[in-house]
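Q: Sequence in, structure out?
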Amino acid sequence: FEPDAGAMAEEHAAFREQLAAGGAEVIVAEAPHGPDPDAIYTYDPAIVSDDGAILLRPGKEGRRGEPDAMGADFVEAGVPIAGRLDAPAMAEGGDTVWLDERTLLVGRGYRTNDAGIDALRELLPGVEVIAFDLPHYNGRDEVMHLMSLLSPLDADLAVVYPPLMPVRLVEILEERGFELVQVPDEEFASMGPNVLALGPRVALALAG
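A: Exactly. Output:
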């Protein structure tokens, strides 16, 4: 199977248009970076806090160059670099979810380790970093991120797939009064829980 570069560019342009229509300022990352198909997942190399961007260290070795490239784009866009993770720490943005301004949920799995979680706690002293073990599911080759199970849509609303969610995570959401939109089993494989909030209660999801 050979990717269609033209179709990919058209899809990317359409995606940017939808983001802009939702009120976002869209900045295209243009820092040079070698061949890396996973670089399309721009949520993974960094997270952004009130103090600036934190450059992560991906668990997948082939993605280790992405944080530096994204860091250059952050600087170009005027976003300060608040810190970065170094070996042996590993963390990917797909394993992190901001529940509110002072609560960061982190999934501990095959791409985010204990050292990565500890590093995030050190870099975010005013934030409660709550970690959960992620399910093994189909193993290392079909990695599962926290955002495979949970996507917030508002301060009290989230799309979730409860069958694979850690019990403590479900309890925290319930304790905080979250309404849970449960993804049916038949939509889990097509990334049903992984949607993007364009604003409060406005979601962008994959077709199908």
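The first strand starts at residue 46 and ends at 49.
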